Amino acid sequence: MTEATTATPSPVATTAPPKPRQTRMRDVILYPLLAVFTALILGGILILVTDRAVVQAWLNFFDDPMAALRATGHSLSTAYGAMFEGSLNFGGILRGIGAALRGEGTQELAVALVPLAESLTQAVPYIFAGLAVAFAFQGGLFNIGGEGQMLVGALCSVYIGFKVTGLPWYVHLPLAMFAGIAGGAIWAAIVGVLKAYTGAHEVINTIMMNWIAISLSTWLLKVGGPMARPDVPVTPPVLETAWIPRLFDTPGNRFHAGFFLALFTVWLIWWILYKSTLGFQIRMVGANARAAKYSGVNVKRLWIAVMAISGALAGTAGMVQTLGVDRWVGVGFSSGMGFDAIALALLGKNHPVGVLLAALLFGTLKNGATRMQSVAQIPVDIITIVIALVIVFIAAPEIIRWLYRLRQPVAKEGPVFSKGWGS
Amino acid sequence: MAVTTAPAAALGAYAARRERRKAIAYGVFFLLVAAAIFVLFVRNSAPGMESTFKLNPATRERVIEVPDLVVPTRETLLVLAGLAGLLGVYQVVRGFRRVVLVLGLVALMFVAAFLVWAVRDKSINLLGIFTFAVAAATPIAFGAMSGVMCERSGVINIAIEGMMLTGAMMAVIVSSVTGQIWFGLLAAVLSAGVLGVFLAVMAIRFRVDQIIAGTAINIFALGITSFISQRFLQPIPALNSGGVFPKVAIPGLSQVPLIGPIFFNQTPIVYLLFLTVILIHFMLFYTRWGLRTRAVGEHPRAADTLGVNVFKIRYVNVIIGAMIAGIGGAYFTIGSVGRFDEAITAGKGFIGLAAMIFGRWTPFGGFGAALIFGFSDALQAKLQVLGKAQVPIPTEWLLILPYLITMIVLAGVVGRTVAPAADGKPYVKE
Question: How near does any CA of chain A get to the CA of B258, in Å?
Fold first, then answer.
């Protein structure tokens, strides 16, 4: 966790003069925190203005001001309380520990841990998907196709998972995992090749590849389709030999070993980016492709490599979700996670550890939102809105500075990625 | 190259060689299409088969009866394959000057061949397909027009999808509440315009990366529309029944054989599209505002030096562009089905963006490209009727075609700089 504060956050930092430590801290810690905080506040306001009881109470404000305030407090505490309880449940965990210490057995603690474990489980695909976007950003590419790459990764791994039979788990599981990773990598590498050799912009092509993947999956997964069961539009279940093992046997606890794979990948990507020649070249291309070219980097080959690795990460996101959690794939599998990943990369300032922290936050939010929907009838899409707002606040720090009256930083802000469709 | 001493000459020769290689690649592609027509269609048809295309509207009484088009299947396919092959050979040997047009032609021939083959020994109402295609092309074309407006002034608008989605929802809500369908359309325009203001402020004032700003708007629109849909539209069905624009036949024009039923028996939103396309073309190329817009999109510094207010032009264009996307959004609800469902736009905004690029940032080009995409939608919908034995390809594959075409076109077209030179670059006044 210490890298978050000490390592350089953005690709420009290698070329720009060193920033004062204070500014760096503000960029990496304060702005993201304020962005998330502000987005959650706005989300709360949205919850309030769409809550009929609250609006009704405020309309009668002059008759009974306390009722208006009570309704407001009640609405907010129900919503965010449910979110907290459904995602972290610290209170329950403390009570569970207490029970265990009193010698009443660990059963209560095990049950109380389920929400937290589920938050971590939900964070796993986010970690991979966020790394995918961040890695591409570091190389100056905008991979908006995480959605399609995840889907392809999930489809490839699920296919190996239910089709190949009679293998021991130590062959079957790696095979299914590899299929997912390779599927995502190839899906993205096509875009990299097109960019390198024809100059076609990766944004529009990854979007096209998204829709191709989605159309393909609706065909593959429709009732009676090539990969679907004859009665329902989902694939057959993955065989037990290809399951990523779950680590707890409490009912509802889906925490699986993929979490540790994610932590390892965070380290691996950090190592590639900041400790390997390849990573140095990638960041060089990201900072200034032309300069990198004239200093002898094969930019075209690098673009293809960056897209392939980025796609492999996105494919892994689909793969771990499939083999570790769902164990089958249905239509509408990823539903926006590829886009949430952009927010993750921005929030984590494209640094692997930053992405990890952002993904843990998003996993928690999303898991909590599910509970919020069932308890307070607030659509889970509130999180999508919060995520969009986070992107806005991170992308335009002026808004945050203006809201909280912060001073203008000395150094220039992050790099501009989009340079038109041609280059 | 080693013998050439002047570096400029070497560079010129290099560029020429690259161009040549590209030209040959196109030719090979045309030849492949010819081969595909032969292998896929000619070999799967028998001599003596006939394909019948009905050219009269199925429902209404008509003034002028057009005879059905009946062609011998196998012979027609052979001719099409041969033509595509000839074009390919010419492209390899000599090279066409406007190869993109030929690419379109060859693609058209492939589609025609596919149709002729698909209806072998059967009949299909071609007019029905085209009418459907124009309707399906409408939101795509509005998206493309929105893109033209924004990008000609140098702002990439990737948020067309989100603007459409918002417009679609607001249209149905306001139309349901007021009972006035035109108010619904107005609401769509205004709500998308608000997102346009937001994009403009982010892109111009804060100089945020435009693709990131657009993506944020897309995510936001998806979230807010799904949120409102679940919180209000589903529990209160009265909010989600906005009615639909009726089809209005334009007197006279709608009676013209072939063209009339396709273009002039549609909903007012479709006519609005025709107006928009013509208006943008006229404004962009024949007015002072258009000249300034293009100048700002190509070289804002020069325009600024000459006294053009770069920021003002960009603000105005982005906001108008967003409003146009809003009309396209209204099509999804009050223009066709009358109710809003989550993510109802289904990526059509992105297809619109692709249509704009396909159409090389021109209004008519974008409109034409949208028609092509609409046509593939129509094919997908109408060919299902013929049955699996007749068309043994999954119709979902036809849905993939527009995306594939876009990627192929992008690979061929972009590279020569057809995009406005300053597209996507924030302008900093000195």
Answer: 32
